[in-house]
Amino acid sequence: MSNFLPYVNAFFDDLEIYEDISGGHSYKAYISGAVREFLSKENRKNALEVYRMFFDSYRITMPGEENSFADIVDILLQYEDTAATLIEKQRDHVVHSVNVFLTGLCIYSASSAFRKAFAAAVPEKEYHNAYSTKNEEFFYRWGIASLFHDVGYPLEIVGRQLNEFVGMIADADGNETKVKARISFDNLEELRTISEVLPAEEFSSDFRKAYKEAAELDLNKANDLMAFRIHHHLGVDLETLRDKLDNFVSTMAETGMIDHGYYSALIVLKWYGFLIQSNRYNSEYFYWPVLDSATAILLHNWYKLFLQKEPFELGAMKAADDPLSFLLILCDELQEWNREAHGRISRGDIRPDTVVFELSDRKFSVVYITKKGRLPEGFSEKKKETIYKLLDMNGVFSEGFNVRDEVLNLWPERMSRPAGHCPRPMLADLERLAAAIHTQYNEKQAQSGEKPEFAEFSDLPDDLKYSNMRQARSISDKLESVGLHLRKKTDLGGLDRIPEELVDILAEIEHEEWTASRKASGWTLGEKDSGEKRTPYLVSYDQLSEEIRELDRQSIRNIPELVQMIGMEIYED
After folding, report:
1. In sequence order, what DSSP letters do the residues of 47-101 get, joined into one string?
2. 457 Cβ partners below 8 Å, 6+ apart?
3. For residue 471, which of 6, 294, 305, 426 sits 20 to 30 Å off, Cα-Cα?
4. What residues have CB less than 8 Å from 339, skipping those under 6 apart?
5. What percent of the chain has pLDDT over 70?
């Protein structure tokens, strides 16, 4: 387990969320709760919860539709689990991306020099719709950049898998014949073009007014947009950049290299561009924060692969030049711990199991820890050398940046498997569901003669709000575990009650999840005191009194009524 929690807590203590203040929501509580649960156990299930809480809180989607941003992460998981079995080298990218996200929050929280660099660059003087809430503009842009920076990886998996398979066939005679397979596209421009929902001149008018140099660009072309932004921030020749990007897919085909960062950036621009237009949002949201995040995604590989080579030959990037790209390159390079291996050879690699940050305002030391076996010789030295070549670290950490590794003689924990997919209710519906769960709990307390401690859901401390949200979120997983499923309401109708023979099974699962969530939030066993985070119920289900077990059972019996409140129903196969 990393030591991120103090840094992350400091970040969330300072963060303000506009929707919480103006709309009465508790999005910060939900996101921070998901983050803390992930830090207590870094696995895919908890990583997906961080994704869902972030992208549901900053949701842009068509009315009535599910959140496609969270769905694409499920697709990435499926590719990593299945398609990577024919690849020699392959590692996790979902837990990785959440750790990249959290690493950035740690650095932002600790380093005043980085915060100053970001504040000087963002909001851009031409951008008039930035969040006025504390640190939220950074949080929004960084969340998109870090959580989506590897979402195009399935294309790289397919390309590498194809090359290995074709190579195996070509080498049938044992002469080590080399054959390279290429990925090409019909109608490539469709992939690189932002769908025109609104007239292009109307949608891009504010951006064109802000930058006279953009007059000759096609602002519905992802390549033109990213080339302009790199030119604007790093001073690189615009036409050379456009040419490099326009020919990049051909370059990849010729060299056999596939840069998933390029495709990840295209996905972000194409999807956000379509959704922002379709929902008639201000176009500035696309041309500034989304473009900033997408370009950072491109540069997290592209800076090293191209901008530090001819004809550009850039040196180490300064945080002041492009703070979001600087941070993504740094965090992606650093994040080596707890990355599950999928490739045939990768499974045997020794990699860091966890990390310890020694992070202050002017100094940053990274300690990689392995629980069994030693990292390859020179691992930490090479990591430090790579980062210094890419980034001007002294500009942010004036008293030094260092990397080292240590060994603990312990077996690493096994990672749990992701839960099965089922339809995801919208966050607003889940919030209503979480509030309804609290109301029902209060009603049951009152019936048993106890006075509810918190009359309204809005009165709950953040960790208890998240606990109710976790319970609402976990309903579908519990149902799936006993052969029941959720779907949107149909004319067929659904179950109006949970079969009684399943109630006790589900009640025990619910209690185990509740116990894990409380412990992750710092609760301890003792006489009930919410202010001191003590509860007498942090015991196994069979140690609970019959009265308390019945409360858990009743919460299960209430599920059909609760899911109907958000337009869903339960059904059996």
Report:
1. HHHHHHHHHHHT----TT---HHHHHHHHHHHHHHHGGGG-SS-B-SHHHHHHHH
2. 434, 435, 438, 439, 465, 468
3. 6
4. 91, 92, 95, 96, 351
5. 85
Residue 415 clears pLDDT 50, i.e. is over it? no
Q: What does the pLDDT read at residue 472?
A: 84
pLDDT tens digits, residue range 84-106? 555 454 467 889 999 999 999 99
Residue 525: give its domain's CATH number: 1.10.490
Write out pLDDT tens, residues 420-444.
Answer: 444 556 777 778 888 888 887 888 7
* pLDDT given for residue 339 in this prediction: 75
Task: Look at the block and give the residue holding tokens 């910060």.
Answer: 28
Neighbours of 322 (CB within 10 A): 24
Average pLDDT of the segment spanning 118-129: 95
Mean pLDDT for all residues in the chain = 86
Whether residues 506 and 363 share a domain: the answer is no
Distance between CA atoms of residues 73 and 19, nearest Å: 25
Please say whether the beta carbons of 534 and 526 come within 8 A. yes
Beta bridge partners of 113: none
Closest CA to 19 of 145, 148, 140: 140
Q: What whole-number distance in Å separates Cα of residue 11 and Cα of residue 96?
A: 20
User: Tell me, what amino acid is at 347?
Assistant: R
The domain total for the chain is 2
With respect to residue 414, please indicate whether it lies within any of the assigned structural domains: no
371: three-class secondary structure by DSSP = coil
Buried b (16+ CB within 10 A) or exposed e, 436-452: bbbeebbebeeeeeeee
Q: Would 295 be classed as within a structural domain?
A: yes
Residue 419 lies in a domain: no
Q: Please give the model's pTM, rounded to 2 decimal places.
A: 0.78
Residues 143 and 98 in one domain: yes
Give the tens place of pLDDT for each residue, 493-532: 889 999 888 898 899 998 988 888 888 878 899 998 888 8
Q: Name the residue among 120, 46, 169, 11 with its Cα closest to residue 395.
A: 120
DSSP string, 479-521: HHHTTEEEEE--TT---SS--HHHHHHHHHHHHHHHHHHHHHT
In order of 17, 127, 197, 458, the CA distances from 279 in angstroms are 21, 20, 10, 29
pLDDT of residue 127: 95
| In-domain check, residue 421 | no
Mean pLDDT lowest for which of 269-273, 294-298, 351-355?
351-355
Residue of 45, 240, 220, 58 lying closest to 139 (CA atoms):
58
Q: Are 259 and 233 in contact (CB under 8 A)?
A: no
Are residues 197 and 304 both part of a single domain?
yes
Of 451, 463, 438, 474, the residue nearest 531 (C-alpha): 463
Angle formed at CA 450 by CA 449 and CA 454, multiple of 5 degrees: 145
Domain assignment of residue 533, given as a range: 427-572
